[in-house]
Structures are given as structure tokens and as C-alpha cells.
């Protein structure tokens, strides 16, 4: 009985997505990209041009920050400089992926599916008594979905405001760092995103998004080859915000 109720609720939630007739214009495909450095974001301009041809995709500015603390308080982390021009700043916190979207012009709901590759590098001070930063580099993939809600975009409307909420799974598959470059020292899990933006009549949108992790960035159960648990006593969360420009032809 409970299953039937759940199915009924899901069907009711998805009904606004179904127009009387599905047309190719409602379904779109494109490339997604982001960068955690101002100069790196400029380099990604060609992605927006490609998306104008494909009919969907997004690019923009983002900023990731890792918060780490133990029983003594915050642990110093070098997240990179947003306007920095060094290689570790420019080539930091960037990603590319594929986005498939479905939002009819006159529907109150839209759904977007995304898969993405992400590269990250940062530094962390493991010992407060030593002026030394341990450097980390990681490659990861993420996959998820975003549900967008707004009033229908009518022909007389120049723009509308929308809200969106999404979730994605994040997994690091390669890294360079301490403890023999073991990828198991990182956590994997879900994160939730919340966004607010404006959708324009010309079929493009701009929005601000905050991504909140639901898991620890470092694996507190990780055991080194000599039997130590270096992350057992710390809490770590990787947060991110972004300003996203999306093409929706």
C-alpha cells in the first residue's frame, strides 16, 4: 500500500513536466564547465560558444573551500587564490561534463541530468607546530540531477525567477598526496545543491548555486600501511558556490 502511495506522489510531481506534445526543442544537450579561478573561467569561454550550437550547457565562475577542524579547532587549508596567476591557482578546481535537460517552455518544472569530471588541488597544514603545507591533487567524477521549479515562461514574459534543488554523487578515483597517493584517504558520497536564478525569454538563464556536502571529505576510517588513522580525529567538508550561465535554446 505504501509503495502505491509513493508512486502516486511521484507521478503527481512529474505531471507538470509532461506537455501535451513533446518536441525536440524541449529536450536539450550540451557541455557543462566550471573553474575555481577567475583566469581559468575566462579560458572556458569557448564552451559557451559550443553550447549555443548544441542547445544547452553551462559555464561560469565557482569557488570551492575545504573546511577542516579537529578537537583543537580549525586546521589551516590553502584553497588557492581566486585571482591568483600561478599554475596551482589557475589550474585548480575546474571541471567539464555533459548535461541533458528537459523543460518545456510552458512547464512549471524542469529536470537536468549531469555527469562531470573534476580536478582539485589544495594544501593542508597537518601539524600546527610546523610551517609546512601537505599538497594534494585529486581527480573525481560526479553524477546527479537537478529539479527546477518556476512559473511557466509565457510569450509576454521577458524573464521569470526560478528555484532549483539537486543532488549528486561524488567519487575521487585518482590522487597525488601523502600516504602513498592512496585514493582511499578521501571520502565519497552525496551532496545537495540549492539555487536561485532568472530565466530569460531568449532561452538562457543565470543563477547562483550553493553545494552542501553530506559526507566528510577525508575518510576518517582510512588506515595507512603502518596501521595509523591520520584522519580519525578530524571533520572535513568541501563547500562550493557558483555563478552559472546556462544556454537553453
How large is the count of helical segments? Answer: 5
Q: Averaging pLDDT over every residue, what do you get? A: 81
Which structural class fits the helix and strand makeup? mainly beta
Q: SSE order, as H and E?
A: HEHHEEEHEEEEHEEE
Assigned CATH architecture = Beta Barrel
Proportion of residues in helical segments: 10-25%
Q: Would you report the number of β strands?
A: 11
Number of domains: 1
Shape: elongated
Q: For the largest sheet, list the strands in their spatial order.
A: 1-2-11-10-9-8-7-6-5
Whole-Å distance between the termini?
42 Å
Main β-sheet description: 9 strands, mixed, barrel
- Remind me, CATH topology? Lipocalin
Characterise the protein shown here.
With 249 residues, this protein is mostly beta strands. The protein is 15% helix and 50% strand. The protein has a single domain, classed as Lipocalin, CATH 2.40.128. A nine-stranded mixed beta barrel has the order 1-2-11-10-9-8-7-6-5.
Descriptive keywords:
mainly beta, Lipocalin
How are the secondary structure elements laid out?
Layout: H1 2-14, E1 27-34, H2 38-43, H3 45-54, E2 56-70, E3 73-75, E4 77-78, H4 87-90, E5 94-102, E6 109-124, E7 134-150, E8 159-176, H5 178-181, E9 189-200, E10 204-213, E11 235-248
Put the structure in a nutshell.
By secondary structure, the chain is mainly beta.
